[in-house]
UniProtKB/TrEMBL annotation:
<dbReference type="InterPro" id="IPR028082">
    <property type="entry name" value="Peripla_BP_I"/>
</dbReference>
<keyword id="KW-0732">Signal</keyword>
<feature type="domain" description="Leucine-binding protein">
    <location>
        <begin position="35"/>
        <end position="381"/>
    </location>
</feature>
<dbReference type="InterPro" id="IPR006311">
    <property type="entry name" value="TAT_signal"/>
</dbReference>
<keyword id="KW-0029">Amino-acid transport</keyword>
<dbReference type="Pfam" id="PF13458">
    <property type="entry name" value="Peripla_BP_6"/>
</dbReference>
<comment type="similarity">
    <text>Belongs to the leucine-binding protein family.</text>
</comment>
<dbReference type="GO" id="GO:0006865">
    <property type="term" value="P:amino acid transport"/>
</dbReference>
<dbReference type="InterPro" id="IPR028081">
    <property type="entry name" value="Leu-bd"/>
</dbReference>
<keyword id="KW-0813">Transport</keyword>
<protein>
    <submittedName>
        <fullName>Branched-chain amino acid transport system substrate-binding protein</fullName>
    </submittedName>
</protein>
<dbReference type="InterPro" id="IPR051010">
    <property type="entry name" value="BCAA_transport"/>
</dbReference>
Length: 431
């Protein structure tokens, strides 16, 4: 009931009506000031805790800024976090359901959670809430396609991992074509770990390698997690490739790869997946990581637009805080908040009519955040990837390639060209 309806309902009711009007208006003002609960199911402990902390940091900063700006139609945001620990379908879905049951969260914004088989989408559908996540999985798109009406409220805030494959090959080919890298041969070695994310990327590289002029000399799957790289390195040294592509992503394990690789390096570029963006990679690897390439389909850009965020993030959370990770949930909360305001409010669980309006606004809006541009692909409800999926940088999220050139400083963005701040340098172990 809005205030006009309340006025009409009690007009002319005398003293008793005046008292009732005062009571109703007080209730309305109280409702307007009631915080909006925003949930997040994050790995705050366990093997992905480093990322979980950064995801929480991003949400915290976004919530503070949104509240300082007046909240959502005057209502402040209140965060609620549930720990998904070692992740997996049971732990993640239970954490999400607790957020809904205990706090009536109309939205759940997650970072990534491993081993869920996208069961999160069913929790969102069964409770009619918005769920945005950064699992970076093509399985999200595939599940969405099976029943778009059911999964209307599920959004992936970045492109699926598949696009890492052709993007990496295109990057290597461009380095060779422009003379920045003189490849000793056409061989590439692909080293995934035993998880869906790593395997999908590795398979995409393998399947597309020939199209970009490369041949796969080694495809070696390692355990997840692992820090024992000896057997794999022995195979690499027997038949040295031009590039070693490691699609495993835990930073501590990748740092150990470099420590062990440099004991007897091959004349190969080393590309790694995501993990080098985290402080642990630099802290553990030290000077051994200089020259390593890595990429991310989502991460805070080093541009002027994102500068206030980068500065505020490290001022609040420390000089080594990984804003490339926290930026994901930061953008996610801002996107949802704008859509909820445009839709007339966030709704609540089981209010499909209102939540569907919020989802429609999220699909319609093109949002330029600190990670680049988010536009929902209607066929899969995840972000488009620039430049391998779309050629227009204003309509896709940039697939960023970075290089650690000095472990004492942040990595340098070397591609794509429209976003690059620095040039690629030949790794020190290549002679």
């Amino acid at each position: 009931m809005n205030r006009r309806a309340m006025l009409q309902g009690v007009l002319g009711a005398g003293a008793a009506g005046g008292t009732l009007l005062s009571d109703l208006n007080s209730q309305a003002r109280a409702a307007e000031d009631t915080p909006i609960p925003v949930g997040s199911a994050l790995p705050m402990s366990g093997l992905a805790a480093a990322d979980g902390i950064e995801f929480k940091n991003g949400l915290t900063l976004a919530a503070e800024e949104i509240n300082a700006a007046g909240g959502i139609l005057g209502r402040p945001i209140e965060l609620h976090i549930e720990d998904t620990k070692e992740m997996g379908a049971d732990l993640v879905t239970q954490a999400m359901q607790r957020l809904i049951d205990r706090h009536s969260t109309p939205v759940i914004i997650n970072g990534y959670n491993l081993g869920t088989n996208m069961a999160e989408m069913d929790v969102a559908a069964d409770n009619d809430v918005i769920m945005m996540h950064y699992n970076t999985l093509i399985s999200h798109n595939e599940k969405f396609k099976t029943d778009p009406d059911r999964y209307y409220g599920s959004f992936q805030g970045d492109p699926p991992e598949y696009w890492y494959g052709p993007g990496c090959l295109n990057f290597l080919k461009n380095l060779a074509d422009t003379g920045q890298w003189k490849a000793p041969n056409k061989k590439i070695a692909i080293i995934p770990s035993a998880n869906e994310y790593s395997i999908v990327i590795a398979n995409a590289i393998r399947d597309k390698a020939k199209e970009y002029g490369f041949e796969v000399s080694l495809f070696e799957t390692v355990p997840f997690p692992t820090n024992q790289w000896g057997p794999t390195l022995a195979k690499l040294r027997q038949d040295p490739p031009a590039a070693i592509l490691v699609t495993h992503f835990l930073p501590q394990d990748l740092a150990q790869f470099m420590v062990q690789f440099l004991q007897q390096p091959t004349n190969s570029l080393v590309y790694m997946q995501y993990g080098p963006s985290l402080p642990a990679f630099r802290e553990i690897g030290g000077a051994n990581i200089n020259g390593v390439l890595y990429s991310t389909v989502i991460g805070c850009l080093p541009d002027d637009y994102a500068k206030p965020f980068r500065e505020a993030y490290r001022a609040k959370f420390g000089p080594t805080a990984a804003y490339l990770t926290g930026s994901q949930t930061y953008d996610g909360l801002w996107m949802w908040a704008i859509a909820a305001a445009l839709a007339g409010g966030p709704g609540e669980p089981f209010n499909k009519e209102q939540v569907a309006k919020v989802a429609a606004a999220m699909r319609r809006n093109v949002y330029r955040g600190v990670n680049g541009t988010y536009r929902a692909d209607p066929a899969g409800q995840s972000a488009y990837c620039y430049p391998t999926q779309v050629a227009d940088p204003s309509l896709g999220m940039p697939h960023q390639f970075l290089q650690h050139q000095d472990y004492k400083t942040d990595a340098k963005l070397v591609a794509p060209a429209l976003y690059a701040t620095d040039s690629f340098v030949l790794p020190p172990w290549i002679k």
